[in-house]
Design goal:
Layout (H helix, E strand, L loop, with lengths): L2 H5 L16 E4 L6 E4 L18 E9 L5 H11 L3 E13 L2 E7 L2 H14 L4 E4 L5 H11 L6 E3 L14 H11 L5 E2 L3 H6 L1
Parallel strand pairs: 3-4, 3-6, 6-7, 7-8
Antiparallel strand pairs: 1-2, 4-5
Helix pairs in contact: 3-4, 4-5
Length: 196
């Protein structure tokens, strides 16, 4: 079992104003206090004896209701590698590996609020970016993180596994001109690479 699996079956963030319970630990940073998952052994050790803090990664992507891609897949991967996952949802997608039925982007103001509150509250070690469904969603993200010096991995989601196009040409142009220059690593598949 992974570290997170061994400590908690349902990983829920504590509510504001309440003291977190194990396996979480409140840590002082230059920002506000943040919570990080502790190793399972920490329940039998004092806080001062606990091992190093768990790294924190943010995924910015669409929500895939089938659980095979997007936010859901990223958070599973983070947990597998003992990384505390944060998420900002860019769109809600009704899809399976066989069909994309509907995609509804979240309001830009809501996306900005998700990104800002996480950036202000957590010492993020890395950002992984997936589906950004519009030019405005790309611009909003770039404006928030362009001077952050946080490593950014861009996995440009343009085409679903079914072959359905998920973003338009204008959005691709903004992605290549605004987002890719601040990226640390870009991981397109062959069809996506040929579109850029």
């Amino acid at each position: 079992a992974t570290r997170a699996e061994s400590t908690s079956g349902n990983h829920r963030p504590p509510q504001r104003g309440k003291q977190p319970k194990f396996p979480f630990r409140s840590c002082k940073t230059s920002k506000v206090n943040y919570l990080t998952a502790m190793p399972s052994k920490a329940t039998s050790q004092s806080t001062s004896e606990s091992t190093s803090e768990v790294p924190i990664a943010l995924t910015v992507a669409g929500s895939d209701c089938s659980g095979g891609a997007g936010i859901q897949a990223d958070l599973k991967t983070f947990q597998h590698f003992n990384v505390h996952g944060l998420s900002a949802i860019t769109s809600i997608v009704a899809e399976t590996p066989l069909e994309v039925r509907q995609m509804d982007p979240v309001e830009i103001s809501l996306l900005q609020d998700q990104l800002n509150i996480l950036h202000e509250s957590y010492p993020i070690n890395a950002i992984k970016i997936g589906l950004l469904p519009s030019r405005m969603s790309i611009i909003a993200l770039v404006e928030i993180f362009k001077d952050s010096h946080i490593p950014i991995v861009v996995d440009p989601v343009m085409i679903a596994s079914t072959g359905a196009s998920l973003i338009g040409e204008e959005t691709i142009d903004v992605l290549t001109s605004r987002l890719l220059p601040i990226a640390t690593l870009v991981t397109p598949n062959i069809p996506e690479a040929s579109s850029m």
